[in-house]
Amino acid sequence: MDDTQYLQHCRALWREFAGTLNTRTAQVDAENPLRELALEFSNIEDAELYANGPALVMRLFTHQPEFAPTFPRTLLWFLGGDCLHVLTDDEVVIFQALDEARLASADRGEMFDYHAAAAKRLQLT
């Protein structure tokens, strides 16, 4: 996975989460802050992700913590900033190692299987 593919992967994770959040809140009154937040997640443009994404994530974690476990940990690392404070120290070490391995593979001209490496290191199924 090169940088472009990693960016596409993270954008896809964002869209997937936003879609799920939107679906889960579809029956909530439009004036409800949770519904408004879900719509903001869905309406964010790819170019705005770094600028506006972290604030939306922190609003989610602060005001709707029941949704926090469903938010992809990879996106916390990808967005950085305040989102890094949500990760455990062990997760930070793992994501740093994944980034280093991905960049080292790119330097060697090899393709890095981010999904497999993340699943192994984060013990995902």
| Helix-strand category | mainly alpha
Helix content: 55-70%
Order of helices and strands: HHHHHH
- Give the integer mean of the pLDDT values: 90
Major sheet summary line: none
Structurally, the number of domains stands at: 1
As an assembly, this protein is single chain
Total of helices: 6
Poorly predicted spans: none
Amount of beta strand: under 5%
The CA-CA distance between the termini, in Å, is 19 Å
Number of beta-strand segments: 0
C-alpha Rg (nearest Å): 15 Å
Form type:
elongated
Descriptive overview:
The protein has 125 residues and is an all-alpha fold. It has one domain. Helices cover 66% and strands 0% of the residues. The chain contains six helices and no strands. It has helices at residues 3-24, 33-43, 49-63, 73-79, 89-107, 114-121. The longest helix has 22 residues, at 3-24. The chain is elongated and about 50 Å long. 16% of the residues are buried.
Question: Main attributes?
Answer:
125 residues; 6 helices; single chain; elongated; mainly alpha
Q: Could you give a quick summary of the protein structure above?
A:
66% of the residues lie in helices and 0% in strands. It is mainly α.
What's the helix and strand layout?
Elements: H1 3-24, H2 33-43, H3 49-63, H4 73-79, H5 89-107, H6 114-121
